[in-house]
Every structure is written in C-alpha cells, then in structure tokens.
C-alpha cells in the first residue's frame, strides 16, 4: 500500500497566495473526492502536486511513501507513481497515443523488463474495448483534434494502461454527456483496488452517482475545511455550501 500525504501546503500564483495550508492524507485502495466552490484552489492543488511551474510552493510538504515529491522533477513524479489527468490536456504533436502509452509504461519499468509489443497491444485493445473507444484512437496523435469527451476517455485509458499508484483527476466529469460519464466511471471503478489510490476533483455530485467515494473533502478559500463520507457529498448536492460557511464562520 502507498500513501500520499499533503502537509500544510501553501501555494502562490504570481505572488498571490491561493493555497493556505492544505492538509490531506491519501491511502492507496481508497477513492477520495474533493469538492468545493469555484476558485477555491482545487485545480491549484492538483497542479502544485504535479509540479506545474506557474505554481510556487512557499511552505509545506507532499510526501509519496515518505519521499518529498516537491523536490522531484515533473517526470520523476510520474515515474514515482503519480498521475494527473489534466483539466485541459495538451496536444503532443507527432506522438501517437499508442507510442505515448507504451513509453509511459516502459519508463516505469526496469531496463530489460519492458512490456512486449504483443502484450502491450493486447492490453491496449482490451482496455479500449472496455472504454468503448474507437480503435483508431490508438494511432491518432495524442490529444490532437480529440473532442472533450474523447480526451477524458483517453485519460482513463492512460490511467488503466499506466497503472499509477495515485491518480489525480481534475474535473474528469466536466463537459461529459451521460454515456461518456458512465464509461469514465466504469474505468475508475475498474481501477479500484489495494494498489491504486485516487483523488477526484469535481464540482458535481453527479459523478458520485456512479463512483462511491470512500472519503469526501470540502475545499474552501485555499484549505480543506471539512471531511466526511459519501453522505457529505449528498448533503452538498441538496444544500450547497452555505451551511459549511456558517458552521465554520467563513465569510465570503
Ligand atoms: P478551482 O479549481 O477550485 O476552481 P483554481 O485552483 O483554478 O480554483 O483557482 C484558484 C484561484 O487561483 C482563483 O482565484 C484563480 O483565479 C487563481 N488562478 C488559478 N490559476 C491561475 C493562473 N494560472 N494565473 C493566475 N491566477 C490563477
Ligand atoms: Mg475552476
Ligand atoms: Mg478547477
């Protein structure tokens, strides 16, 4: 089992403090969800963990199995087992989806232990079938001309192929129609297991009709202000965030 521990994380963008001391502990085997109003720093948290250069960590720690992630280069973070589904995944011109996946898998393996082409293709076919993806997606250039829904499905394909220790999925459900939402959820549920932990960031409860989270956290004004189980998400859906503000004495 793996752990991802975020301790008193403070992050600035262009000199403005966005995260003001985030504390969160994730274990593999569990699905955590972060919800919260717009602009409270949810995406900032995801980007800071993955090392986006625009985000400056001014204080705090992110520890993956006790190792300081913040001291790692971005590619080292992926090699160590973190996976971030980008809110707006970028196109990588000239690299096919299949090439990208195969090198991402092999990058995490020892020399001489690379996945064989046969095995890779078999896995890829199986997972693309499962996600009801068109087989030609494998040979398309990564994210080039992918629709919003195709990008999201493809992120779940990446997750299933790369099998990271922790997946951080930011707004994986935004802009999806109901069928795509079901497929994306099916993929995440398939990943569930002892050696996979997940942090899902979402505005909406509707994803949680398909994925039962183990833990739900509420983020407001740059901090995790409340944690609970699935019932917390349900209460947010019906009552919004006002009651939490009142409970905690948070002003707008
Ligand atoms: P959330 O994901 O919870 O909606 P974000 O993390 O995207 O919130 O944003 C938190 C705050 O940081 C907002 O006030 C937003 O305007 C600001 N912010 C986010 N990204 C940038 C950026 N690249 N440059 C400047 N400000 C940013
Ligand atoms: Mg936002
Ligand atoms: Mg966001």
Describe it for me?
With 252 residues, the protein is of the alpha/beta class. The chain has a domain at 3-90 and 165-248: Rossmann fold (3-Layer(aba) Sandwich). The protein is 35% helix and 26% strand. The protein has eight helices and ten strands. It has a six-stranded mixed beta sheet, with helices on both faces. Strands 2-1-4-5 form a four-stranded antiparallel beta sheet. Helix 5 (148-162) packs parallel to helix 6. The longest helix is centred in the middle third of the chain and has 15 residues, at 148-162. The radius of gyration is 18 Å and the shape is globular. The mean pLDDT is 91.
What tags apply to this protein structure?
252 residues, Rossmann fold, six-stranded mixed β-sheet, 8 helices, globular, binds adenosine-5'-diphosphate, binds magnesium ion
Concise overview:
With 252 residues, the chain is an alpha/beta fold. The protein contains eight helices and ten strands. It has a domain at 3-90 and 165-248: Rossmann fold (3-Layer(aba) Sandwich), CATH 3.40.50.300.
Count of DSSP helices? 8
CATH architecture of the domain at 3-90 and 165-248: 3-Layer(aba) Sandwich
The SSE string, one letter per element, is EEEHEEHEHHHEHEEEHH
> Globular, elongated, flat, extended or rod-shaped: what is the shape?
globular
CATH topology category name of the domain at 3-90 and 165-248: Rossmann fold
Low-confidence stretches: none
Find the structural class using helix and strand composition: alpha/beta
Estimated share of beta-strand residues: 25-35%
Instruction: For the record, give the distance between the C-alpha atoms at the N and C termini, rounded to a whole number.
Output: 39 Å
Q: What helical percentage do the residues reach?
A: 25-40%
Mean pLDDT, all residues: 91
Protein name: Fe-S cluster assembly ATPase SufC
Family: Belongs to the ABC transporter superfamily. Ycf16 family.
InterPro entries: AAA+_ATPase (IPR003593), ABC_transporter-like_ATP-bd (IPR003439), ABC_transporter-like_CS (IPR017871), FeS-cluster_ATPase_SufC (IPR010230), P-loop_NTPase (IPR027417)
Pfam families: ABC_tran
């Amino acid at each position: 089992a793996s752990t991802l521990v975020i301790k008193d994380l403070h992050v600035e963008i262009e000199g403005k403090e966005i995260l003001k001391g985030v504390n969160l502990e994730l274990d593999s085997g569990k699905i955590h969800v972060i919800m919260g109003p717009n602009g409270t720093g949810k995406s900032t948290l995801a980007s800071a963990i993955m090392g986006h250069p625009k985000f400056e960590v001014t204080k705090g720690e992110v520890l993956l199995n006790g190792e300081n992630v913040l001291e790692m280069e971005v590619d080292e973070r992926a090699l160590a087992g973190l996976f971030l589904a980008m809110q707006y995944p970028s196109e990588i011109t000239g690299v096919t989806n299949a090439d990208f996946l195969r090198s991402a898998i092999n990058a995490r393996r020892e020399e001489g232990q690379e996945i064989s082409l046969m095995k890779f293709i078999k896995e890829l076919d199986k997972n693309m079938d499962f996600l009801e993806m068109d087989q030609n997606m494998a040979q398309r250039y990564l994210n080039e001309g992918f629709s919003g829904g195709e990008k999201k499905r493809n992120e779940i394909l990446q997750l299933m192929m790369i099998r990271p220790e922790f997946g951080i999925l930011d707004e994986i459900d935004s802009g999806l129609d109901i069928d795509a939402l079901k497929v994306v959820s099916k993929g995440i549920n398939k990943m569930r297991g002892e050696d996979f932990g997940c942090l899902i960031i979402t505005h909406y409860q509707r994803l949680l009709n398909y994925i039962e989270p183990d833990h739900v956290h509420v983020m407001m004004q740059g901090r995790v202000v409340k944690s609970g189980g699935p019932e917390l998400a349900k209460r947010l859906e019906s009552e919004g965030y006002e009651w939490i503000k009142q409970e905690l004495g948070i002003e707008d």
